[in-house]
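Quick review question:
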């Protein structure tokens, strides 16, 4: 409202509903609260007007008749059983038809279906209360003319229990009986459980099966409080005769119809102390020697086997060492030829071989005798070289090296290549490239060095007599 230069906005106090009321009529009065007394006679200083507010209609989603639907169904219901019905309507004046569906995010296993037109919910699969006792699903209602308008309703389906589970032992019992137990002694108290949930609670009945009712070892007493007691019938239990007993127990529930099951109780015979506490329950204790357990025997056997393996390995290695170094013709013996492109360091290279050995042929060398074979020829002394022709010296030197290789246990195979760097007596090994020869009056011609290529150019310049000689 605008008046006297001021504006007065309207504010909503509650939500409007077009379907409930389409318009509102307001009568508004505006008055001047501060009138100058000099102008009171001109009065009144107020005015009235009428304001009509019209509510516009908007498209709204369908609305369910109830915010939460509660339904029940028996877990014995067959597929297709009707559980209940939901209803929703379009609140708009058009009253568009509504179609129903189930939000599958709330029914992942697809236990239920709903009729799209009537909203009737039915079972789609067999139900199990022990798996899920209550199913909470969401139903969607959509306008036929505008599927974007979706309403949501919530349904809680409770599964009613039926007696479909037989009773069983409440736990895995480890029952023992002492060898010195007396008749009528309590050795175990048992109880039962049932996955079903009857309205009046559980009631179990215990008894021995027909084939075990007349056994001479144990008996069963029903305590009428969902428990039972196992007692001995005799004394003198012996582990070496029988170390384990199996007692079948028959349990019945009070459901309608009642269900039953047979559970087997395992009873072990043990050696007990004075207080009746089990000490040893293994029947092997009578068979094993005193002070030795099963683990100790296993350890002893493992040690014996280990020693046997070691002895076999030692014997095998010794036999291989005693084998003669004679190769069969069938074996494939191949030599590896290694090529070294190394020219050496000239006469300054003294690491490759011992020059003293080449200069003095009379050095006494220790003869190495092979230990695995007996040499055919024993060498008592090393022959002394005298001033004899070079060809004899070479022959003797090579023959000596050959004999040493034959009796050397570390020598390579017989068909290997051995190089003997021996020059013989009278060699000029002490000065292979003496520079003194350049000043000698030698008649030898070294001009052929120029034909050997650039690598020998230096020598050709030093010893040559051609015009390009270094000293020409």
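Suggested answer, residue by residue:
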């Amino acid at each position: 409202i605008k008046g006297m230069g001021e504006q007065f906005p309207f504010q909503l106090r509650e939500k409007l509903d077009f379907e409930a009321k389409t318009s509102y009529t307001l009568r508004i009065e505006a008055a001047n609260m501060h009138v100058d007394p000099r102008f009171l006679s001109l009065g009144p200083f107020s005015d009235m007007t009428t304001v009509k507010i019209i509510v516009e209609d908007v498209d709204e989603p369908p609305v369910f008749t109830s915010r939460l639907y509660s339904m029940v169904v028996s877990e014995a219901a067959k597929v297709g059983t009707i559980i209940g019905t939901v209803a929703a309507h379009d609140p708009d004046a058009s009253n568009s038809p509504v179609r129903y569906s189930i939000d599958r995010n709330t029914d992942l296993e697809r236990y239920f279906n709903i009729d799209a037109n009537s909203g009737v919910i039915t079972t789609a699969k067999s139900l199990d209360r022990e798996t899920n006792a209550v199913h909470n699903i969401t139903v969607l209602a959509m306008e036929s003319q505008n599927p974007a308008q979706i309403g949501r309703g919530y349904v809680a389906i409770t599964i009613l229990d039926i007696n479909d589970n037989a009773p069983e032992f409440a736990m895995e019992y480890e029952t023992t009986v002492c060898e010195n137990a007396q008749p009528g002694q309590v050795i175990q108290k048992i109880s039962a459980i049932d996955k079903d949930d009857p309205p009046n609670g559980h009631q179990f009945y215990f008894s021995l099966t027909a084939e075990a009712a007349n056994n001479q070892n144990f008996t069963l007493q029903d305590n009428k409080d969902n428990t039972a007691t196992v007692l001995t019938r005799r004394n003198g239990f012996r582990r070496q005769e029988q170390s384990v007993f199996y007692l079948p127990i028959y349990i019945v529930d009070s459901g309608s119809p009642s269900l039953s099951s047979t559970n087997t109780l395992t009873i072990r015979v043990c050696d007990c102390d004075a207080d009746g506490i089990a000490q040893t329950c293994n029947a092997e204790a009578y068979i094993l020697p005193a002070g030795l357990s099963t683990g100790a025997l296993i350890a002893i056997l493992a040690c014996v086997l280990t020693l046997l393996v070691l002895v076999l390995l030692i014997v095998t290695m010794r036999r291989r060492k005693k084998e003669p170094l004679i190769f069969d013709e069938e074996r494939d013996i191949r030599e590896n030829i290694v090529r070294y492109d190394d020219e050496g360091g000239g006469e300054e290279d003294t690491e490759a071989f011992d020059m003293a050995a080449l200069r003095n042929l009379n050095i006494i060398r220790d003869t190495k005798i092979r230990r695995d074979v007996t040499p055919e020829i024993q060498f008592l002394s090393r022959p002394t070289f005298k001033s004899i022709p070079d060809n004899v010296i070479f022959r003797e030197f090579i023959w000596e090296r050959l004999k040493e290789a034959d009796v050397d246990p570390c020598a390579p195979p017989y068909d290997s290549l051995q190089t003997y760097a021996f020059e013989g007596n009278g060699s000029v090994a002490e000065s292979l490239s003496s520079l003194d020869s350049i000043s000698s009056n030698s008649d030898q011609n070294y001009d052929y060095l120029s034909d050997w290529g650039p690598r020998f150019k230096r020598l050709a310049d030093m010893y040559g007599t051609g015009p390009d000689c270094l000293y020409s």
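Why it works: The chain has a mean pLDDT of 79. The CA atoms of residues 137 and 433 lie 110 Å apart.
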